[in-house]
Amino acid sequence: MNDYSERLLADSSRRKDKARFRPLILIVVPLIAVLFQVYVPRFFPFISYLELPLLITMHFALTRREPISSLLYGAAIGLVQDSLSNQKIGMYGIVKTLVGYFAASVGMRFDTENPILTFILGFFFYSFHQFFYWVLTRALLGQLVNFDLQQTLLFGVLNAAVALPLFRLLDKLKVTPHT
Q: Which tens digits make up the pLDDT trace of 90-126?
């Protein structure tokens, strides 16, 4: 392995270091993201591509590095998003559950504080989210909806670009251990 690839892989001490968040932050930040997702695009339709609840789920999962808690966190965020939007209850819950689990699994293996990797993961998980939402809509609801690959790729890049400063901001909300 070369030096760059070794820096992308998390060393064993880093993998054991899990982020901690204040309980109020774990509730308020996703609620703000869901409210933003539901109401702001009604006034500013040009930012309807932004999937803030997904990015919050990703950040928690990548920094917490615990698949089970990330799975539950993603499910909770998805169900709140389902209940406040005009979507069928459970659709976002299922998809964000999958994202939470897989993002935490990736966070256990890689150094997710690398901005290049953060961008790639933001793009990948947005595309993953959209694809599985499309699959569930067709399979569970029996609705024939189109999957616009070009639009998904473009919005994936835009969400990944938003993820970089958002993750830095959310990192400042972590509880730092007193030494």
A: 999 999 999 999 999 999 998 888 999 999 999 999 9
Query: Nearest-CA neighbor of 19 among 69, 74, 55?
Result: 69
pLDDT score of 12 more than 50: no
Does residue 42 form part of some domain?
Answer: yes
What does the mean pLDDT of the chain come to?
Answer: 88
| CA–CA dist 45, 41 (Å, integer) | 4
Residues in the chain: 179
Nearest alpha-carbon partner for 19 in 55, 68, 62: 62
Q: What is the tens place of the pLDDT at every residue in 34-48?
A: 999 999 999 999 999
Q: Are 54 and 159 in contact (CB under 8 A)?
A: yes
Task: Check pLDDT > 60 for residue 10.
Answer: no
Residue 63 lies in a domain: yes
Name which of 65, 87, 32 is nearest 174 in CA terms. Answer: 65
Is the C-alpha dihedral spanning 12, 26, 137, 127 positive or negative? negative
In a domain, 178, yes or no: no
In total, how many domains does the chain have? 1
Kindly state whether residue 89 falls inside one of the protein's structural domains. yes
The closest alpha carbon to 123, from 54, 31, 25, belongs to 54
Range of the domain at 27: 7-171
